[in-house]
Amino acid sequence: MQRYLIRRFLQSLVTIFGVSVVIFLLTRIGGDPVDTMLPQDRITPQDIAFFREKFGLDKPLPVQYGYFAANALKGDLGRSYQWDRPVVELVVVRRFPATLQLAAATMLIAIAVGLPVGVLSALRPGGFMDRFGKLFAIMGQCVPHFWAGIMLILLFSVVLGLLPTSGRGPGLGHLEGWKYLLMPAFTLSSFSMAAVMRMTRSSMLDVLDSEYIKLLRLKGLPESLVVWKHALRNAAIPVVTLAALQVPILLHGSVVVETVFAWPGIGLLAVQAITKSDYPVVQAIVLYTAVLVVAINLAVDVLYAYLDPRIRYE
Asked: What global pTM score does this model have?
């Protein structure tokens, strides 16, 4: 197990290094920040030279990447061209917590709704809950996030006046803060909720038809114990895998959802940084996202052994 974790950790470092190289090169061919950051009608060659020297853009690309990698190892990802602030402060301190909050609420809703609906659908295939689940899954995976978000705003904010249209509010320590979170989280969870529900149903159908579940029922164990403890625990492995795979989808979908609801997270910040060719901000967002996804995948590998003791990594 230890050798496996060490190997996976080293693979994770290689993955993060590869991501840093790719995003560094892609941002450089995406546009020149001089064209977007400096006023073209009053720009002078001296202004361009000063700007490039200030942010290290006058050096060759290998040298720029060397400085970037060396500083990143020390926790310094540079300064934003647009806001002229340290990128770590701008991304990690100000924006990343909002995205993590939205992603956590989204995953919580997806699991809290999708898991029980999937289990109930598997208990009575072809029944009312199963038909409802199929319809819900089709809608959740087909409806675009931007359209669902706009429809929720029209219904709950404009027509009913129950929820605020946009922003983050005063935080989750106040009731008003939860109102700001509900619509973005539900909008972003629609796809993941449907995916979790369908995977749970499929996995539960396989487990409920196995011999050891039939044996447990023959021994007279309560049906609720058979279903929610023994069957669900064994059916949870593919669901956990799917939940881990949903994290990149949530972070990518947050770009659209955060833009629709003006949620101050890294999705909205990424859109603003890309339009201004703000290299350091874009690089930081992609790197932190990659680290988060890699860490979650590593945690899922460890969780497998807990869910099923038969799984051991050699």
From this structure: 0.72
